[in-house]
Design a protein that fits this description.
D-Maltodextrin-Binding Protein, domain 2; 2 domains; 5-stranded mixed β-sheet; alpha/beta; 6-stranded mixed β-sheet; about 290 residues
């Protein structure tokens, strides 16, 4: 099986067709995110023969370590276990760090792939490359119960104090506005939600799935989803995984495997376990 995959990958590398590219759209760079002139670097072969280290953060439901079993789990963990299996990568190690340490650690060769999903943006593309698409999702706003500041839209955040995770795409989008009273940065969802509940934040910009799951587990907390909110256009884009720029062979192999599990329904089955639907497999531009 491994030899067969390696032969298929080799043929794809020659033809330059290993990645099933989609049309470029807001938030996505497309095939321009990978330097196809750098081929034959041996990174995929090393992963098969020597194993691979994957970087994640405590970012449920996408990546986390189970408190009881101490096993690593989450949507992205399960997706990448399937990717590794299909690519014949059997020796897989995990490193759990803070979210804002994931890209620096990748660049410093501490791990080979950032598996806590990321969105492409120009700043990140200056230092790393990205795989093909995995799935799609957008942000939501968490506000205090009753929404006392009457926050419903992106425009309603003007003059407000807003929190988000340090190193997230939300940080860059919020800081670029210039009309907020303050952007507060956090290292955990629990801390940012607690500050909204306590009235120290007017709102939190966070993944809608995370807010929904927090409310499901804590139905009595003084927190709610702001109704009527649509993420800003420059946030839209596919969730992907981060890989070093020089590891083009590994990028092509992972991207091909992702395309296969998207096509055969495996990825859809995984994301549905966490509350997503088939809608989250495809991004449709709003304009």
């Amino acid at each position: 099986m491994i030899r067969g995959m390696q032969r298929l990958l080799g043929a794809a590398l020659i033809s330059g067709s290993a990645v099933l590219a989609t049309a470029a759209m807001a938030g996505d760079i497309g095939t321009g995110a990978v330097d196809f002139m750098k081929l034959g670097d041996g990174s995929y072969k090393r992963a098969v023969e020597e194993g691979i280290t994957l970087g994640i953060s405590n970012d449920p439901p996408f990546t986390y370590q189970d408190d009881t079993t101490k096993d690593y789990d989450g949507m992205d963990v399960r997706i990448f276990r399937e990717v590794a299996k299909r690519l014949g990568i059997n020796d897989v190690k995990w490193e759990l760090v803070q979210f804002d340490a994931l890209i620096p650690g990748l660049v410093a060769d501490r791990w080979d792939v950032v598996v806590d999903n990321l969105h492409e943006n120009p700043k990140r593309l200056e230092v790393i490359s990205f795989t093909g698409p995995s799935f799609w999702y957008g942000s939501a706003l968490a506000v205090q119960k009753g929404n006392p500041k009457n926050i419903h839209t992106w425009e309603d955040l003007a003059g407000k104090t807003v929190g988000t995770i340090r190193g997230s795409i939300g940080q860059g989008i919020l800081e670029a506005r210039g009309d907020l009273q303050e952007v507060k940065l956090y290292t955990s969802n629990e801390a940012e939600f607690a500050d909204v509940i306590a009235g120290r934040l007017d709102a939190v910009m966070e993944d809608g799935l995370k807010i929904g799951q927090f409310l499901k587990k804590n139905p009595d907390v003084a927190l709610e989803l702001a109704s009527g909110y649509s993420p800003p256009a420059d946030e839209y884009g596919y969730a992907r995984y981060g890989i070093r720029k020089d590891d083009v062979d590994l990028n092509l192999a992972v991207s091909r495997a992702l395309a296969e599990i998207r096509a055969d329904g495996t990825l859809g089955s995984i994301v549905k376990e966490y509350g997503f639907t088939d809608r989250n497999l495809w991004f449709f531009p709003t304009q």
